[in-house]
Amino acid sequence: MPVSRYSRYHGLPQVEQGGVVSLALRPATPGGTPGDSIAHVLIGGETFDLLAARYYGREDLWWRIADANPKRFPLDWRPGETVIIPPIRIATRVARR
User: Fold this and answer.
1) In angstroms, rounded to a whole number, what is the distance separating the alpha carbons of residues 21 and 56?
2) Would you say 61 and 94 are in contact if contact means Cβ atoms under 8 Å apart?
């Protein structure tokens, strides 16, 4: 299964489970979420891509918000719950290999 070098999954090991080849889970960000993150209370209809567009100006960075809130699937959040929004410098950093 080739993965583009521009993919966030590039460099992850492949695993085989039940005869199906897949990628290992993305490792958590070292050190957790920085102290200057924003705690955002969701209102009706907000999704991670809308939050990324609001806070970062780029909806394609929604997965950074998902990474900062790993205990739940991104579509399982409900109005009134609080999600962590990592700062833009964390959301747009590129790992050096």
Assistant:
1) 34
2) no
* Complete domains list, the chain, with CATH: 28-91 (3.10.350.10)
State which H helix or E strand residue 55 sits in. helix 48-56
The DSSP letter of residue 28 is P
CA distance 53 to 46: 11
% of the chain beyond a pLDDT of 70: 68
State the amino acid at position 94 in one-letter form: V
How do residues 45-84 score in pLDDT, each as one tens digit?
999 999 999 999 999 999 889 988 888 888 889 999 999 9
So what's the pLDDT on residue 74? 85
Cα of 13 vs its chain's centroid, Å: 19
Q: Provide the phi-psi class of 71: left if phi over 0, else alpha when psi is between -120 and 50, else beta.
A: alpha
